[in-house]
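=== Given protein ===
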Amino acid sequence: MSARSLTKSFRGIHAVRDVTVDIDDGITGLIGPNGAGKTTLFNLFTGYLRADSGRMSLEGRDLTGMSAHRVAAAGVARTFQVPRPFRDLSVRRNVATAGLLRAGGRTRAYEIADRVMDRVGLADRADRLAGELGIADLKRIELAKGLALQPRVLLLDEVFSGLTPAEMDALVPVVRQVQADGVAIVLVEHVLRVVMQLCSHVVVLDRGQVIAADSPRAIVKDPATIEAYLGVGDDEEGEDT
């Protein structure tokens, strides 16, 4: 997946400004301080927002201007930072419902749901109501719902936030295996320990612009990244998280 010169403004304030990134087959981290533009960029990638200018493509197919529904059908799925499942439905039904767009029918949607629940460690809780589960399992439901769309690229929005260290450690190999199974991942994450463990490449946003893009080891030593996180320099102007 690639984006070229993406720009998005709200009331004259740039949330994303001239962003160019390439997403390879690995796990790409997208980090930055609050107000950096990460959520806006995710919304542009997935068609929830339309860019003012710039282009996006997936494996040569132009995604520019597509609706969220069409972007998902083309192979780009996402999770949301705050899980909002249908609390009165079973885990299995939640996941199957999410996959109907690509499945082509109810029976196939449930077959896919069973497979992805097994991949993310939810098979033994398939018949539990989503509203009965804790945050760690709700995050896994989000992951399963994204995978039910059979994506080529999966965007994970702070899937580790709110988890205990032990829960994070349990989820890391699950995400790693998803990538190993052929799904490219973009990971927005504030937990830098997880970014270091999972990502082969990291893009840093600040005030809507890419200020660094490199390996995790190089990024943590990058002066511009350190300045952005420590808040050193000009007055801060965050537009989005």
